[in-house]
Design goal:
elongated, 13% strand, 7-stranded parallel sheet, Rossmann fold, alpha/beta
Length: 450
Amino acid sequence: MSTRPADGSRVAVIALGFVYQVLATVLFVVALPYVLVRTLRYPAEMRERMGWSRATARSQHRPWWVHGASLGELQGVSGFLEHAAIAPEQALVTVLSVSARKQVGARLGGYRAVHAPLDFWFCLLPFFLRQRPRGLVVVETEIWPGWITAAAIAGIPVAVVSGRISDRNWSRIARWRWLYGPFCANLTAVASQTAVDAERWRRLGARNVAVTGNLKYRVPLDRSDAAPDMARATSGGSGARWIFVTGSLRRGEEAVIEVSRGLLASRIDVVLAPRHPKEIDHWKRACAASAVPVVLRSDLDESTPSLAQHGWDSGQDSARALLIDRHGELGAWYHLAAAAFVGGTLDGRGGHSLFEPASAGCPTAFGPSIENVRDVAEALLQSGGGTQIRNARELADWALSLRREDARREAQSVAALRTARELATSGTRTIEFLEKAGLDVTPREGSTGK
């Protein structure tokens, strides 16, 4: 079933796009001094943004243009490319942020990647002439009128995958629905993350919208299958350590340190992982103020996260606290944890990744602020793999109850992993939806969506 935008919608978006480009050109002239300075400082970057980079020289294939704004969206780009039958020579990945441009090669392997063209006609024209894209796939929330207009003129489909409009963005975007409407109506398909996101896209004017999930969610089989056994090994059985991980802690959540002091008294080892390693001095001072002695991860020589390898063997009577000051280790600690709490949920920031501990088969607690992770939070609450707490006191009660009731902890572990695996099928659902919408993207042979 093809759901290409009607001719009337295409004409409307081209007309509105013309007016947009007139105004955008005026804005560009005003900003020209800044553009010139940046071009002199970063010539390679600006060639890409102006659509003239050598990296975008015409290839023999008409590539899919796949866009992810920053590092976070690159996970969704990777998920899409993993499930779609798009070879590296048949795709061009664009990003907006400089940090994403630096890392995209390492994260996406052989796929070509450049800075996205600026939303001006004189940047898009050379980009389209050199690339001749066969379609545009945008990850999450990018709505660029110039891009959509150019795609309408070229007669190519535009799809949004992992479509998301956060509460904060919606309060701003909703005021401009009259402007976004014609452009969103010209989208071929919107594969949204949640029902809330889907309704917002419809209110913006998108017509072909479905809930398919978040492409960031993937469970590596070699690690996820082992996760329940690893969790059981630390669940307080015969001589085993019981480890509680608090991940992605943010300023304003220092009450978790008080919880840690109580857990240590109950012979529960605690791993404290701040969201930003640069704030490690703040957390060291906070631990000292709460009389919680900690060992810095950087003070230990071993590269593999394991309390036993650090001399915290099962025969040791007292529990200890480890403060993580290294980047990239949190996921490994979730696999060793008996239970975990995810930060950014007690301080009103909207929460950080709940999927990561769930995919490790780790019972997960989180606070009331879940705006950024609502899909995973609701799924975990429904399955029983997650628990929502209102304050630090409830967090302590939850952790201690799991310490006493191993069967309950084990049931939550299994539920968390099952939930993560279900969420990780979003890739298959997304590709199937795009196929029905008329986009020539098929699942890779043998793809399971996990």
